[in-house]
From TrEMBL:
One term of GO molecular function: L-leucine binding
Superkingdom of origin: Eukaryota
GO cellular component terms, semicolon-separated: nucleus
Organism encoding this protein: Chrysolophus pictus
The protein's name: Sestrin 3
Pfam families, per the entry: PA26
Keywords for this protein: Coiled coil
GO BP annotations, alphabetical order: cellular response to L-leucine; cellular response to leucine starvation; negative regulation of TORC1 signaling; positive regulation of macroautophagy; regulation of response to reactive oxygen species
Coiled coil regions, renumbered to chain: 103-137
InterPro entries hit by this protein: Sestrin
């Protein structure tokens, strides 16, 4: 079943990219798809692609098991046990950071992150970056995202059953541009936004799903307990926005009103490696990657990160697919 779905993904998006095949897919005929069916398929595919990021990022890997009462058991992924997340213990209790040195080091990282957030807010109030500076910072971040290598801890990557479906060289994530290219393609969010374009198209062709998706995007993006590890009453807006926009940046999507210098200020390299792995190669995610960033944060806070990555990943895919459908209609 999974193999069939993945094969459909390959054919489907190949058709979307090439105009003549895109037209053939919805051409009037007995065996062709209607536009509502096409949008329905797009939403389903984007949902399952993004869900894989959350599942592997949170250490959940359900397998069929006839010996259990419900037929499903949860197994550890690369020594990544979902029970750790359920207990919501602080990361410093994990074996990798249990030493006094590790705790002190992670505490200093937390304080440094909070200081950078405070400084960014102060700098924004004092003086805003020029449009030219913001253009330069986005291009720099976009190029650097191509150089972030996923699966940095290859010694821990264990072959899983899903690998048989993703090792085909013709299928899988590909960077939106080749390394070394001077002019990288950019999807300007202002030209095709979810709020102004994607939402209305989806709602018109797939009744009410636009409202449900929009509510989900907004809920996850705005979700906060105003805490960072042991600190309370913290405004995490800047950090949440950096996480969401970095995922879109990896897919070549740019927001003209966002200063991408904030991404480099707030997201350390180990976190960028984790983000790229979870959003682009989720099956490679390991517990060591999960533990390597924000070591003082609670598991619930890291699960919130995974939720943000999942929704950003889904919205990015929807924007590209819905823009292709809009172009077909016009």
């Amino acid at each position: 079943m999974l193999r069939t779905k993945l094969c459909l993904v390959r054919v489907f998006f190949f058709y979307l990219e090439l105009k003549k095949f895109r037209e053939k897919l919805v051409k009037t005929g007995e065996n062709n798809w209607s536009l509502p069916e096409l949008v329905h398929a797009v939403v389903l595919l984007a949902h399952y692609h993004a869900l894989a990021s959350f599942v592997f990022g949170s250490g959940i890997n359900p397998e069929r098991d006839p010996d259990t009462s419900n037929g499903v058991r949860l197994i550890a992924v690369n020594n990544f046990c979902v029970c750790d997340l359920a207990n919501d213990n602080n990361i410093e209790n994990a074996s990798l950071t249990s030493s006094n040195f590790g705790i002190a080091d992670s505490l200093s990282e937390l304080e440094a992150l909070m200081e950078r957030m405070k400084r960014l807010q102060e700098d924004k109030e004092d003086e805003e970056a020029s449009q030219e500076e913001m253009d330069t910072r986005f291009e720099k971040e976009k190029k650097e995202s191509l150089l972030v290598i996923s699966g940095a801890f290859d010694d821990e990557i264990v072959s899983t059953d899903v690998s048989r479906y993703v090792e085909d060289p013709g299928f899988g994530y590909k960077d939106f541009a080749r390394r070394g290219e001077d002019h990288l393609p950019t999807f300007r969010a202002q030209d095709y936004t979810w709020e102004n374009h994607g939402f209305s198209l989806v709602n018109r062709l797939y009744s009410d799903i636009g409202h449900l998706l929009d509510e989900k995007f907004r809920m996850v993006y705005n979700l906060t307990y105003n805490t960072m590890a042991t600190h309370e009453d913290v405004d995490t807006t800047t950090l949440r926005r950096a996480l969401f926009n970095y995922v879109h940046c990896m897919y070549g999507i740019r927001y003209d009103d966002y200063d991408y210098g904030e991404v480099n200020q707030l997201l350390e390299r180990s976190l960028k490696v984790y983000i790229k792995t979870v959003t682009c190669y989720p099956e490679r995610t390991t517990k060591r990657m999960y533990d390597s960033y924000w070591r003082q944060f609670k598991h619930s806070e890291k699960v919130h990160v995974n939720l943000l990555l999942m929704e950003a990943r889904m919205q990015a895919e929807l924007l590209y697919a819905l823009r292709a459908i809009t172009r077909h209609l016009t």
